[in-house]
């Protein structure tokens, strides 16, 4: 365990909050920890009846290119229920609503410098509607066979970590026959 000695706020933005802490290590030495506080998020793997995945393609500014991903989004407020957030994000980004959701667990995306947690859900028995993306989101919908998406995760064509983990968790959950 590390003991906090001093904490400094470096930046507080709309999405991210950056801090710099001085800590005392187990061995008695002092060190600095710079990290990002994140409100948390959800990711949804929407599966159609024919084992096709509803995916989103969007430009990601920090890496300068489009990525093929599962729908996802951050919590709108502290304490928001992850399932309610998942329902909202699926509808906003794809237009789909699901009759059945299965919680697949959560991930720490980058624990070396962020506290971000993403809760992952499988969404089934989908009903199509109209997407309602945020005004700063330009999203293209792509529907792909889960085997093709899994192969893209393995080959490196899909590089988004929440998508890779969500697809793997979904694939093995569906193969297990669990409900």
UniProtKB/TrEMBL annotation:
Residues in Nudix hydrolase domain copies: 36-166
Co-factor requirement: Mg(2+)
A Pfam family per the record: NUDIX
Name used for this protein in its record: ADP-ribose pyrophosphatase
Protein keywords: Hydrolase
SUPFAM superfamilies in UniProt: Nudix
Lineage: Bacteria, Thermotogati, Thermotogota, Thermotogae, Thermotogales
InterPro entries, A to Z: NUDIX_hydrolase-like_dom_sf, NUDIX_hydrolase_dom
